[in-house]
Structure formats: C-alpha cells, structure tokens
Write a structure and sequence with these properties.
By secondary structure, this protein is α/β, with parallel strands linked by helices. Helices cover about 40% and strands about 25% of the residues. The strands form three sheets. Strands 2, 3, 4, 5, 6, 7, 13 and 14 form an eight-stranded mixed beta sheet that branches. A four-stranded mixed beta sheet has the order 1-12-9-8. Bound molecules: N,N,N-trimethyl-histidine. N,N,N-trimethyl-histidine binds near residues 43, 160, 161, 204 and 214.
Length: about 325
C-alpha cells in the first residue's frame, strides 16, 4: 500500500467508526484538504481569531532573546512541525539572519504545497539561507532527523496545534518529541490560554461563518471522496466552551432529520433532528496544566513568553 492509499484507508475506517458510534464524531485532522487549508488561512485573518496575532506579537517581542540563546558554535537546526506559510517563523528567521547565527531551517508540513511555497519565498528573501523543507507526518520525518543531525536542535510547534489533542494524546505527543531530544535541545511551543469565555466563543464561531464552512468541509470531503450524500447545509456549526476544563468543542448539528448514504463504505447513517457530530477539540491551558503535561512527558518548562494582551503563551521546554 502506498502512503496515500493507507491514509485513505485510515480515513475510511475512522469515518465508519465515528459515524456508527453514539454520540457521533469525526476528527478535525480530516478537515484539511486544499479547501480546508485555504479556509484555515481565512480563519487566521479573522478579527475574532486572536491566536495568530497574539503569537506573532510574542515572537516579535522575544525574537532577540530566542536568537541569542542559539548562538552556539557550529550552528544549530531549527525544525518546525506544521510550518504552514511560516509567517510567524519569518520573524525569528530574520533575527537569526541579522545576528549571523549559523543554522539550517527544516520546516515540516503534511502539505507539499505549503513546503514548496515557503521554500520558494525564503529563497527569494534570503538566497543564502540553508532551508531543507520536508513533506510528511511529523514523527516519521523527525525520527530521520534525529538520526542524521548531531547539532543542537530547536523544535518549533506554533499555533497551539497541540490543542486539538486530548490530554493523554498531548502527553503522548510531547513524549514522542522528548524521545528525540538531546540535553542541549529545546522545544518551543504555543499554548492558547484560558481567558474570558466570550472571547474564545467568538474566535471559534465567527460572524461571517468562515469557521462554519471550515467545519462543514469535513462533510464536503465525505461527499466528494466517499460518494456520500450529506445535505451539508442542514448541518450547522456549533461551538461550546467549558471554562472549567478549558475545552472548546466544535460540532456539526443536524437541523433537520436525514438519512445519509456513504456509498464507498456501503454505509447508511441516520441523523435525528438536533443530533450532533463532534468534530474538534481546541484545548485552552494555564501554567499548571502545561507544567503537568510537560512533567508527565519527562519535559521541564525553561521559559514562558506572553503577548501584550495576555491571551496566548509560548513555552520552551528541555528534556
Ligand atoms: C490549527 C488547531 C490551532 O484549534 O485554534 C481554528 C484550528 N479550528 N478554528 C485551533 C481551528 C477552528 C486551530 N488549530
């Protein structure tokens, strides 16, 4: 089986599992095809979606500090998991370039398109910068890198991507990273913070409905890729944030009863009026929870950075 074929098989198994369970669910990781990537880009430009600007502000404010920590002899490797368009990372790259720090930038992303575009724009801006983009799943690529690179590493995971994981999965994720870290390496990671629930609610249920389209993209994919017949407009986006646990959850909510046939799975699924499909978790954190996750994974917090509006934090960890 090729990589592509096993991904499709995994996707199909997941859909069967999730839509025959009670309550129904689907994973947000399947939102991201080309259309999903584009909708997420639009989300990052929404006034309500504060996360991107907050993290941009943090990196801008502390880039000198971060750069100076890595002025090591013999250079270092800057590895980014889920690089996307690299807008925030470019701030740090610019600083490292200015400070004449020796480094190789290794952006890793599941999207080949993102990696190609990012590499092209970096080559144009800084032709002499050593950029070695890799397409692939985080861990496969990361494992290869740990084998080949003996220089100190700074691993970046921006955007609070970890928030899509429930705590046990997040610990597992951190643990897998820790296993690839040497004592001189650091992990720099974004964690969106607990805050006024209204601010979070609005960030995930924007007025213009981009987030609704983003969420509905899952159903569009099933219609296209598995010959399903979801009446997509009869599923509304619903967001609920629980300030006690810090968990924001996205749902698709059936506003009419319907019967859906997913031909390629030979599966028929019924929805009652007001039945839900749980599609995404966007976990919010505080220092105590981050410290707990880190220690469960054998990591230690070494610095904490916060934006001016106190919405978001980046932490550095060592093993
Ligand atoms: C890409 C996981 C960071 O949860 O904030 C944005 C995805 N979902 N709006 C997030 C998302 C709805 C985003 N992450």
């Amino acid at each position: 089986m090729t990589k592509q074929e096993s991904f499709i098989q995994e996707f199909k198994d997941h859909v069967r599992e999730g839509l025959t369970s009670y309550p129904k669910y689907l994973s947000s990781k399947y939102i991201y095809d080309d259309r999903g990537d584009e909708l997420f880009q639009q989300i990052m430009n929404l006034p309500e979606y504060y996360l991107t600007n907050a993290e941009y502000n943090i990196i801008d404010k502390y880039k000198k500090d971060i750069s100076s920590k890595f002025e090591v002899n013999g250079g270092f490797d800057l590895i980014e998991l889920g690089a996307g368009d690299g807008k925030k990372t470019k701030l740090l790259l610019e600083q490292l370039h200015k400070d004449q720090v020796e480094f190789t930038y290794i952006p890793i992303d599941i999207s080949k398109h993102s990696i190609d575009e990012l590499t092209k724009s970096l080559k144009k801006k800084w032709p002499e910068m050593d950029v070695q983009g890799e397409q692939g799943l985080y861990f496969n690529v990361l494992k290869d890198l740990a084998r080949y690179n003996k220089r100190p590493k700074l691993i970046l995971v921006l955007g609070s991507n970890i928030g899509n994981l429930k705590h046990p999965e997040a610990i597992d994720f951190l643990n897998q990273i820790r296993e690839l870290m040497s004592p001189q390496d650091s992990l720099f990671m974004g964690f969106d913070q607990k805050k006024d629930p209204i601010v979070i609610q609005n960030a995930y249920a924007d007025k213009t409905g981009v987030t609704q389209e983003f969420n509905r993209n899952l159903l569009h994919r099933l219609n296209k890729e598995m010959s399903a017949d979801f009446p997509v407009n009869d599923f509304d986006h619903w967001e609920s944030y629980d300030p006690e646990t810090g968990t924001a959850k996205s749902f698709l909510l059936a506003t009419e009863p319907c019967k859906v046939h997913i031909k390629d799975l030979d599966l028929k699924v019924e929805f009652k009026k007001w039945e839900t499909i749980h599609t995404e978790v966007s976990q919010k954190y505080d220092d105590e929870v981050v410290d707990w996750l880190a220690s469960e994974a054998g990591l230690e917090i070494s610095s904490i950075y916060e934006d001016d509006q106190k919405l978001f934090k980046n932490y550095t960890f060592t093993s």
